[in-house]
Design a protein that fits this description.
about 250 residues; pyruvate-formate lyase- activating enzyme; 8 helices; globular; binds S-adenosylmethionine
Amino acid sequence: MFKLMLDTFQRLRYHLPLKPRQVQIEITNRCNMDCPMCPREDLNIELEHMDWSKFVTVVDKLNERENITLTGWGEPFLHPRIFDMITYCKNNGHKVMTTSNGLFLKETILDEILNTDLDELTFSIDGVEDNNVFDGHTSDKVYDNIKKLAKKKKNGKPMIRLQSTLHKGCEKDLYDVIRFGARIGIEAINVGRIDRKYAPNLKRPGPLEEEQIFHEADRIANECGIRLDWLQYAVGTKMVRYFTDF
Ligand SMILES: C[S@@+](CC[C@H](N)C(=O)[O-])C[C@H]1O[C@@H](n2cnc3c(N)ncnc32)[C@H](O)[C@@H]1O
């Protein structure tokens, strides 16, 4: 906590760390979903998997035990060497995370995930059964995969998060995701604000409404005993909690 406060204070004074602590490698920008909100294809970049030698070159340049997230706009589990990539990063001393839509094309993926040393896996879901979300991540098959992984994981690994983007009028779906996560033993929920740069027609709550939703989501998360990480409110609420916990 002290480190977080010191870091935040330094950043407010524009004193940034000289080396990155977090590195994100987009190992593929191909995907098996076609979400209306996702800018993946609007970026006009060729859709391809990163080749192994380029990947190794990037990872070999890191030497500070950075946390590596193997995700960009594409679906990482489509990459034919994702498990080799996870192992390579782990063997080089890094903590490894990735984010997935959970729509696995092979039955074996769940077991392969359990057999690697992946530290954190985030599943993107914007609602659970019977939801109102039209522009986001929702699929019955995905809920099943998340439940199976949460049930089968060993020794607490990988830590599983659910990640939702908040769509206008869909706060009930977010609350359902929080309750679903707590019910099946997920450790944390991330919430993100929709970026409308490439899809200005997307609807998201205004600032006041969003803040009210945050407080209700936070109340539900506390009630269910699950951690809620919401970037826009992180520093304020974590500091308040730190001082009120004494
Ligand atoms: C693009 S996906 C890529 C990783 C993986 N295929 C998945 O679906 O989780 C990464 C995250 O970006 C989020 N995302 C997509 N479009 C977004 C947008 N316009 N604004 C904010 N987040 C967005 C998704 O909800 C997802 O959690």
